Amino acid sequence: MALPPTNTGPARATGIARAQMPAIIIGVIGIIGAAIGLFTDAQEFYRAWLPAFVFWFLIASGALGVLMLQYVTGGEWGVLIRRPLGAAARTIPLFILFGLPIAFGLKHIYIWADPAIVHGDHLLEQKSLWLNPMGWIIRSLIYIGLLSLWAWRVRVLSLKFYEDRSPFTELKRRKWSAFGLVIFVMSLTLSGVDWVMSLEPKWYSSMFGISFTIGAGLSAFAFVTFFLTLLSENNAMKGILKASHFRDLGNLMLAFTMLWAYTNFSQFMLIWYGNIKEETPYYLKRMHGGWGVMAAVLIVFHFFLPFTMLLMRAIKDRPRTIAIVTVIILVMRFVDIYWLTVPAHHPDHFYLSWITLFAFLGIGGLWLAAFIWQLKGQTIIPIHETWVDEAIREGALQREAHHA
User: Fold this and answer.
1) Burial readout 326-350 (b: 16 or more C-beta within 10 A, e: otherwise)
2) Could you tell me if 2 and 388 are in contact, meaning their C-beta atoms sit under 8 angstroms apart?
3) Where are the chain's structural domains?
4) Whole-prediction pTM value?
5) Using an 8 Å Cβ cutoff, are 143 and 209 in contact?
6) pLDDT, tens digit, for every residue of 30-74?
7) H helices then E strands: how many in the chain?
8) pLDDT tens digit sequence for 262-316
9) Which terminal Cβ of the chain has fewer Cβ within 10 Å, N or C?
10) Nearest alpha carbon to residue 188 among 161, 164, 216
11) CA of 129: how far to CAs of 103, 108, 272, 404, in Å?
């Protein structure tokens, strides 16, 4: 077990807190721009809000999943990302607020929320036992509430461990995290079905939920790795962040990239091979025109390019080069979500709404501000945690605080 920290020098600030106000400004501009869209085209506003909401939610929820995975497995790979993962996870309650436009615009987004469409359609009437506005809202609150509860509980146990250094506290945190991983997978699977797959309620796939969950983990790994690359040249972090840390994170991103490709290819292959009329239209509309081009972009830039780059140790070991990989992955994560959601409303041709761009900036700016707020004032490196000495390698950490 790690020894209590003994500070040998003054606390050094990373300067991350300075980015909070610009993030708020960007967020406010984005919200105002999206609000203009609400008054000019309400239906398009509600539909355009969904992909931006899902993208940022997957980063926050994925951060909780990766954090709990780290607490369960231990090891050196995750110690340096525990604090940013925890800060991102504690922003999950914000998505109740961010989700309000979707809740108010259900009839504009989901055909099953419109009684006039459901009436007389036998299949939709049967599915209305699950797919109905009140049920959707209640379940969404449960998903976000459960994830928020686990983020809070893990934080409480981490603070307690900081005080008592008790192995029983650490064991309790691991138990909560182990059970929390089950809650995480169930919540992400069902939220993927409710929020995205139900856009086309007559289509179904048993692979969709796990693919959605894996996408959350990949989003979180890409985000926190990019965050660490921003700190790599920071005076407060010099001599701490090393090539081996980025290599470990690069290897994990490689694994999740392959899992994402495997689940998506398996889903496509099973539907193509089965050739069932209820399933094939989903891909037919996404394989032609502009949507087909986007599908090709995803194959190349979401899988083959990052897969190839992450095989190279020289790329993974250098902050600047692995930062490029993380940016590519994050951009492709949004492209993937856009490809999954928008063709449900615009099946015939590619469509990009300017409202989506403002919604992306609005939610993203405010979320980043909340992330920084959760992070600042505490040490970036959890110097009280187990595995810290091993993770820093050869005592490079001088056991002093490195604040946000």
Assistant:
1) bebbbebbbbbbbbbbbbbbebeee
2) yes
3) 18-114+140-396
4) 0.92
5) no
6) 999 999 999 999 999 999 999 999 999 999 999 999 999 999 998
7) 19, 2
8) 999 999 999 998 888 888 999 999 999 999 999 999 999 999 999 999 999 999 9
9) N
10) 216
11) 18, 20, 29, 48
